[in-house]
Amino acid sequence: MQIQVPEISLWQVLPELIVLATAVGVLASDLFVKSVQRVNVTLTATLGLLIAFFTARSLEASATPIFAGMVVRDSLSILLDQIFLAGAMLVTWIGHEYARRNPRQFPEFTALVLFATIGMMVIAMSADLIPLFVGIELLSLPLFVLAGSDKDRLASGEASLKYFLLGAFSTGFLVYGIAFIFGVTRTTNLTVIGQSLAAHAEATPLLVLGFALLLVGLGFKISLAPFHMWAPDVYQGAPTPATAWIATGSKIAGFVALMRVFTLPDVSFAALSDYWTPGIWWLALITMIIGNAGALMQSDLKRMLAYSSIAHGGYLAMAFTSGTRIGAEATLFYMAAYLLMTVGAFGVAIAASRSGQECEKIADLSGLARQRPWLAFAMSIFMLSLAGMPGTAGFVGKLWLFGAAVQAQYYSLALIGVLTTLLSFYYYLRVIVYMYVHEPDDRLLFNRYSFSNGLALTVCAVGLVGLGVFPNLLWSTIRLCTGAV
Amino acid sequence: MVGAFFFWIFAFTAFFAGVGVVASRNPMHSAISLVAVLISIAGLFLALHAEFLAWILVIVYTGAVMVLIVFVISLLNLDKDEPIDYTAARRWGMAALTMFIAAFLVYLYADPLIGAGHPAKPPVPDDWGSVQTVAIDLFTRYMIVVQLAGVLLTAAVIGAVVVARKPEQNEEREPGA
Amino acid sequence: MIGLYHFLILSGVLFSLGVLGVLLRRNALVVLMAVELMLNAANLAVVAFVRYPMFGDGGIVNAQDYAAMTNGMTLVFLVMTVAAAEVGVGLAIVINLYRQKKSVNIEEANALKG
To answer: Do A171 and C82 touch (CB under 8 A)?
Structure first.
């Protein structure tokens, strides 16, 4: 029996390996060192992520799949790696702050954030449904655990159970969808599928059923309505840094998975776009309406951000539906902007605690501007960017998202998007009003926030304004990614 | 005909045991029913010449995973009947949705089942689906996913420990906090 | 004559039973088992698809069929791995919640509003 070993190009997956080594290193340090200082954990993780970030930057992009066609190191995956690594760094920094008041299991917390990051990076470079599926699970399992890592609060355990059961449920749909796609195409390799579909696009009922099930499975992961029911509860119950990573990393990775499966020309199901576009069109429409309508009525800050995150998923899906190059570019740009503003908003939620009291209600932010002006200012930037105020990355991103929808002649979708965006100003501005206008309802002072959290918030705020004023900084890189299209 | 006989035996066992998983009042009965489903599916795998997967299914699932579940049921003392509330209208709405999905599936298959007939079933050589054939590709072409599965299992083990560990145990660590 | 669609219907029925179990049952462990039922239904479909090539000429088994066979079996193998990992984490989460609430009923998990 002759066994052919395919070429093993480990340096191509070096960023993932570095993150893995960092995760294991952080855990091992906990094992061997008697009492690990939190700051050392954060520093190690930051260092590892920075090295991985620059390794990813230095990788040579190539559209040829490696590891026997399992993964591909194209410029898209390299760009997304950098986005995920930067996001993981920000989450580690705001998690450092959170761990000061909840001082338990910090090395494990960081390691699990890193493991989830590896999952996201694997999704970003998948050229086959099998690594895509394993990546999604590698992303989900640590997040289930992170959601339940705060043992003091019952809500955390419940959030974890809810997230887990719905996550496992959605995995069932995902696997069944993959099963049908495999059955019809006789392969799980997206490159092979894409090429044969480009040659003769034929949608059998089984294939369409496979799409639909896959869409349901991924819809749960990115909380598109009507599969969004878990999101508000989980976001509210999970520890805030975990929420930040669930809201950003997991959602972005879900969209990346959709992109890998559905829109990339010739290496996905793009040739059958007539069949899956209507599905995502409706999901985007419902998601925008439900997300924004739900956010209007919330008094809880994290719940409000959860509905806002659902709404932003709808905006992303809207551009995604167009299936055009500008749509893909707008989606990528908005992903980066969304990451910065959402992590920033949750970072403020962590920083704006009073002694022994988490910031839970929006009213808890009352008087923040007087005591912590910089915090309030940063939060204002995040809120304005989420709402889409000109001068912030949120505005530029939304402009392109709507532009992509209009270009694809989805006028009704774009109209709903604009209307719901106008509506969203109400609940975002309400936060600013509380911070600047309302007096604090008690005399308790806000805690001092740590250096790492301040750094994370500064990076987010500066990044948002920077990308808002000079969008070309990122736009040119994104154009390179989709340039091959 | 022998193949058809085995199919119907295993299919009916799987179906009724599947109903048992969903409808048993006692979680332990659900677990035992699931074991029966899994063994039936392993039998069907054998009928489909997927030897390797059949044994993996019996060893990993029935042997390890299900034992774990049964263990937890006993540990948490859940081995008793619980009422199932079939009345909530919301749930019936969802159940109707499920039935709709099932009907759609049957509709999809019914046509080829009655009409055009089945896809061909080519006779396969002995090494089809054997441990060796699968293993060779598993560790060459699919090497990277096997590695990834290793990372996944590591993450799962760490995660399980983090969640299940009693909170008191880490109070002593973190002195600087 | 038993063919592909017999297996697919069985798989579809088992999958629907799993969905039904997730929606109807409130015991977290039973829901977990129903999810396992769904995953195994999907596995059954994959293995059936491997045995009955939908678009093959159905004549002789060639190298391409072998490639498709190992592809499908690797998929099933990894689904099992993932399911095992999921059960591990899921049981830990259930135990964690049981320790706090002395119950594994999802309906009683209502510390969160909504």
So the answer is: yes
- How far does A163 lie from chain C, in Å, by closest CA? 10
Which region holds residue A204: left if phi is over 0, alpha if psi is between -120 and 50, else beta? beta
Across A247-254, average pLDDT: 94
* Backbone φ and ψ of A356, nearest 5°: 70, 15
pLDDT at residue B177, rounded to an integer: 35
pLDDT-based confidence at residue A201 (cuts at 50, 70, 90): confident
**Domain ranges within chain A, ordered by starting residue:** 10-483
Q: Do B143 and A103 touch (CB under 8 A)?
A: no
Every domain of chain C and the residues it spans:
4-101
- pLDDT value of position A48: 95
Selecting from C13, C37, C71 the residue whose C-beta is nearest the C-beta of B21 gives C37
3-state secondary structure of C107: coil
Peptide bond into B122 cis (omega under 30): no
Whether CATH 2.60.450.10 fits C4-101: no
Distance to chain A for C109, nearest Cα, Å: 6
E strand or H helix at A66:
strand A65-66
